[in-house]
Amino acid sequence: MMETGRSARLGFALVIAALTGGVGCGDDAPANGGAVNNADAALDAASDAPSQDVVDSALADAAGDIAVDVQNDVTVDATVDVATDVAREAAADGSVDAAAEATVDASPDVAVDVSPDVAADVSPDVAADVSPDVAADVSPDVAVDAGPVCVSPRVVCGDRCVDVATDDANCGACGRVCAGGGRCAAGVCPPADPNFSGVALLLHMNGASGSTTFTDVRGHVVTAADGAQISTTASRFGGASGYFDGMGANLTTAPLPEFDFSGAAPFTIETWVNGTGTVFSCDSYGLLMSIKEGRTLYVWINGLLPWDFVGTAAGTVPVGWHHVALTYDATTYRVFIDGAQTFAVAGRLAAQSNSYLIIGGYQGGTQPWFDGYLDDFRVTRGVARYVSPFAAPTAAFPDL
Fold first, then answer.
1. Statement to judge: residues 168 and 238 lie in one domain
2. How confident is the model at residue 99 (pLDDT cuts 50, 70, 90)?
3. How far, in Å, are 46, 70, 81, 86, 131 from residue 94 at the CA level?
4. Which of 11, 149, 195, 308 is the most core-located residue (most Cβ within 10 A)?
């Protein structure tokens, strides 16, 4: 009976030694003599007094050397707690033999199969016994850099969170850049302008509210006078527009050849309007567009249409934001409101005495100053962009 008990205890000690790496063969035998010595100590202590306290003390001494040095510095500290818990549970049955048998049975669950680049793959039974305080010291090879955490609708593009519905450099997908400074809307870039080379003036009229700086994409100096300013109260695109008070506020360009609209060269002048009064004029009454009584749009083309201080009715502009355009294709002038052609006349504008453009007003005369908002004002030379009905633009004019 005593021999049987000692054999069982010897088996128990060997199991503990095996778990700590203290038993091996040949070249594979780990150098862990301390663990073997503590296993012997556990055996001797258990032989003398196989009580709960002795078992706990002996196992604690033996388990103190159970440190598995995992390749790549991955250290697993859970084995100490696991071996102690298993033995303590078995010892509760009242004998060292039972503890040894329980430990032998538990050993497959304690095994830790560690590969060079992977942190310890611990079995479910072992993981259940690991205390939350046991932290794995994971090597740099194992660490995973998850990158930024984004809140919907933002997504990770590179190393930052972006909204692909509005980000001009990641429009609709990471890395999709809207050409020419185009503005991303609902994940879609506006098409590049095939006639951009002919753009002589493009004012998006964006900026801080109250600013008198109107930036031309083409770099022309545009002077704000008598109260013309940027407003964020209303806009068609971009969150701002040009505000004109109807009492003389206007924008003026320098006299330049690109604003001489006489001759046979095609051109297009267009903008978004929200108000009434003179939209633009050139060379005093040489070329003029105005929204007057009853929201009727009038045009004046010097040498072709009778002036009589009224102009010729060319359609009606409803309340709110609407796109208006005047085009010339070298033979015919056309007026469009929201893409619908409302007027046409053949001929040619008489020679101009000067060549500057006034937006929101006129040079002398009786035409009213513009009262309201204008947005995205564009002049294109060399092409009549519209010669038949078209869909009004749904995005700001592209910068390329």
1. no
2. very low
3. 12, 36, 21, 14, 26
4. 11
